[in-house]
Design goal:
The protein is mostly beta strands. It contains no helices and nine strands.
Length: about 90
């Protein structure tokens, strides 16, 4: 069941990697990206699913690349999909 008001959770990582359940999927049907609970985008292929990844930090955080538009002092966050849509909301605090 979709939780429309999930609680904020602490940002936890092991070796610089978030837990798999801390990622949400966004895309447009041709391409997709994973968005971490911390606001990072560690995996994204363009212009199609079968293209080389632009960011591949999900597999190699050190050299795979990622994009993180979040403040470094981030302590907790939550993610939820808007009801009946593929829109992912990621709230940071």
């Amino acid at each position: 069941m979709l939780d429309t008001d999930p609680p904020f959770r602490p940002i936890r990582s092991t070796g610089g990697y978030l837990r798999l359940e801390d990622y949400g999927l966004i895309g447009d049907g041709a391409t997709a990206a994973l968005v971490g609970l911390d606001g990072s985008i560690p995996w994204m292929c363009l212009p199609r699913f079968d293209a080389e990844p632009l960011f591949c930090g999900l597999l190699d955080r050190a050299t795979g690349g990622h994009f993180t538009p979040a403040p470094p002092e981030l302590t907790e966050a939550r993610q939820r999909y808007q009801r009946d849509t593929g829109v992912l909301e990621t709230e940071l605090r």
